Amino acid sequence: MQVTFATCDDEDTANRVLRPLMGRRVTLTAPADCGVTVREASAAAPSAKPAAATAGQPKEQQQPAPSVASSAPDAAALSAVAAAVKSGKWADAVVPLDKAAASTCGSKAAKCAALANLAASSGGSFRTPRGVVVPFGVMEAVVEAAGQKARYEQLLKKLDDGAVTGEELETACNEMRALLSGITLPAGLVQQVSLQGQ
After folding, report:
1. Consecutive sets of 10 residues in the chain, 198 residues long: mean pLDDT of each?
2. Which of 93, 94, 111, 174 is surrounded by the fewest CB atoms within 10 Å?
3. What are the b/e assignments for 104-126, b being 16+ CB within 10 Å?
């Protein structure tokens, strides 16, 4: 599964399309082909009591945006994930989206978690879909369990080498892609992602 992120940095589009929708419930569709659409949500959408808008509230009454910490991988978390994978405890290796932290899941996942937590405390002004995160360390542990650790590290070293360019770099990328896509994901991991993501 892929996650698509959408932004709008065009002032004309923001003023013409987005500004008229401020304060209204909207549906944002961001498919992978970049055909982003935003429209007012239909009346058939699940209703919830909207929270009072904060735009006119004094600053002390507005809730601060959740902060996102550094996205450097946490060594203790990596060890815990590796241990969970080795023992087959997949529930300990999959993180509910609202619990994702930058140090264990990366900054994009942590920002999605902040958005999910903001939605949960918004009184129904907006909602986010449920999700789960496969944290740092799981891929490496799965690669190791498949007996491909040495080849993975060899390719990773080549990809990290700034001197590797052009056709050599493209070949290394294709080899890494083939290596990773050739590994069968453990059934327990797939099941846990499916269970927690419902």
Report:
1. 65 81 80 77 48 40 41 66 78 84 87 89 85 88 91 92 89 93 88 79
2. 174
3. bbbbebbbbbbbbeebeebeebb
Q: What pLDDT is attached to residue 183? A: 92
Q: Where are the domains of the chain?
A: 1-43, 69-146+183-198
Tokens of 96: 């509910």
Read off the pTM: 0.55
